[in-house]
Amino acid sequence: MTDVTSLLHLNSPKSPDLYVIGLQEVYSGPLRFMSDMAFDDPWSHLFMSTLAPLGYIKVSSIRMQGLLLLFFSKVDHVPFIRDIQATYTRTGIFHYWGNKGGVSIRLSFYGHMLCFLNCHLAAHMKYATERVDEFEYILDMQTFDSRKAPGILDHRLIFWFGDLNFRIEDHGMHFVRSCINNTTYNLLWSKDQLTMMKKKEPLLQEFEEGALDFQPTYKFDLNSDTYDSSGKKRKPAWTDRILWRMRPRTSPQDEEYPLKICQDMYTSNMEYSISDHKPVVGTFTLELRKMYTSPLVRLQPEGDWSADIDAMVLYSPLQPFPSSTWDWIGLYKVGFTSMSDYITYTWVKDDEVSLNDELIQVTARVPMPLGG
């Protein structure tokens, strides 16, 4: 592993409210993959241990073989994040193998439906059309249990990113490397496959992207800043991308609660060399009007809390919401790193959740460690 301080721009004067981190080609050998399914993988541990001391919580994550997607939020925003769902789609061999495909996390952020889609699409120069087909297949296959946004394209704002594998056509190796050395990247843009495909694919035209004003991120010799020096001499390309799509305003609610986005930065980070790709970073400012300003539930500890007696909590719903037999209340230590880091939890009976002035009592028994 490595220090991710620079990658996450932790020394910036203003810290982000959210971090969304997508990785591809995470090692997924059978033994490691089974271990990662039972426990958090090393990359998740690295990001959690780095961000938790700064007040961030891992709200959700999803893993499909080598694809990993992590969503972190500052603690203050967590009560206003709802409707969290995650899913995946395989596009590998016969749509069965998960070495290629997409993983997504969708959620409501202060009432605005957001979706984050991390993809690893088909490789090689000649498969540009197949990459678009895979993207459309992922959009068609991923559905959510939601009336407001049952599909990816129904979300108010979508971020689409990952190793999309689009290459630079026509130009020879010498010209491409010359443009890189002279930082005349604009001479390569017209032959970037994603840029070319956007001209003839209406769906792709709905997605925006910042200028590719950084050197291509693929393909490097490991542990170096040297482009492929092997016998294959693969041509550099912007395979790693971040795009976004704002859904057109379709309802009075969109007018009443506007959402705007501005990209502040789009660049690659050349100092990381543990992969044959260089990571790409994008920072965005979201300007939104909150659809709600209070959390769903008010919690109040009752009496003195001690490790040797049951803990009692009083809670009261502040807003109407669809309750479920899956509702639960968790107890967390101060400084917890993830939503799954609860010490203990208790189920909430479905008929206990109602919007009234009544305080509802929940007793949680804290498991004690055994001496050894």
UniProtKB/TrEMBL annotation:
Residues 1-292 form the Inositol polyphosphate-related phosphatase domain. InterPro entries: Endo/exonu/phosph_ase_sf, IP5, IPPc, SKICH. It comes from the Eukaryota. SUPFAM superfamilies: DNase I-like. It holds the Pfam family SKICH. One of its GO terms (cellular component) is endoplasmic reticulum. GO terms for biological process: negative regulation of glycogen biosynthetic process; negative regulation of insulin receptor signaling pathway; negative regulation of phosphatidylinositol 3-kinase/protein kinase B signal transduction; phosphatidylinositol dephosphorylation. GO terms for molecular function: inositol bisphosphate phosphatase activity; phosphatidylinositol-3,4,5-trisphosphate 5-phosphatase activity; phosphatidylinositol-4,5-bisphosphate 5-phosphatase activity. PANTHER family: INOSITOL 5-PHOSPHATASE, INOSITOL POLYPHOSPHATE 5-PHOSPHATASE K. Belongs to the inositol 1,4,5-trisphosphate 5-phosphatase type II family. This is Inositol polyphosphate-5-phosphatase Ka. The lineage of its organism: Eukaryota, Metazoa, Chordata, Craniata, Vertebrata.
